[in-house]
Amino acid sequence: MRTFKIRNITIGEGIPKICVPLVGKSHDEILNGARLLTGVYADLVEWRADWYQDVFSIGKVMEILIELKEILQDRPMLFTFRTKAEGGEKELTEEQYVELLQEIATTGLVDLIDIEVLGYSEKAVKAMILAAHEANVLVIGSNHDFEKTVSKQELIKKLCKMQELEADILKLAVMPCCKQDALTLMEATIEMKEQYADRPLVTMSMARDGVISRIAGEIFGSDITFGSVGRASAPGQLPAEELRQVLSILHHAIEQ
Q: Which terminus of the chain, N or C, has fewer Cβ atoms within 10 Å?
């Protein structure tokens, strides 16, 4: 199983790493949100750029990335533009999406980028992943379903496809319609981890019925979990400090 060392953390071993999303519509909202994180435990910070009102101005995006890097210092930064089709704030054409992520990957200001690998043509996805890898940026290949949870076999098939496309970390988020759906997601995660994956996984079942998936990653095979500070970016996110405590308790119980 491959692991990835980014600055002072290693993804793919030990306690799942906590990623805190940073959301805000304006320049000041984003930077003030980042300053709030300086006193909070977080392994990684995700800038959800689709919330930003001027995200289509690459110059303004660059300004924010530079300032975020100064504020966050050694914390790894994940850049995400979540499209409306997968629960985000804005819509983009394939051409616009590819251009944006390729530009961000080559700035030298981010450590990871999120690419919605199942929402675009393979040609486009491979071009984005290649640009990121040439810039030594890791790729989280992602897919989000805010309506349902498909079968275990379909979930595994999606994760295998992400791996085939050479995403470095495989991420799958689904909406449960019942508690059984959360179990389906966790069953798919452990089967993928034990039988097919050769790299880290990130899986979550959202909303109230899926909360267990956000804290049980070390048992079932999910290597990153998302916790909130202030405004959450997806339903079911737990406050980051509480999440850290729960993960630590589970880790010590497992290690005994």
A: C
Distance of CA 146 to the CA centre of its chain: 15
Catalytic site positions: 144, 171
Contact of 61 with 113, CB cutoff 8 Å: no
- List residues bridging with 172 in a β-sheet: 143, 203
Q: What is the pLDDT of residues 157-174, one digit of tens each?
A: 999 999 999 999 999 999
Name the token pair of 75.
Answer: 């914390």
Residue 228 to residue 20: CA distance in whole angstroms: 6
How far apart are the C-alpha atoms of 140 and 137, rounded to whole Å?
A: 10
Whether 79 and 112 have beta carbons less than 8 Å apart is answered as yes
pTM (predicted TM-score): 0.96
User: Which residue reads 């988020």 in tokens?
Assistant: 173
Per the structure block, which two tokens stand in for 152?
């275990």
What length does the chain have? Answer: 256
Name the residue type at position 225.
Answer: T
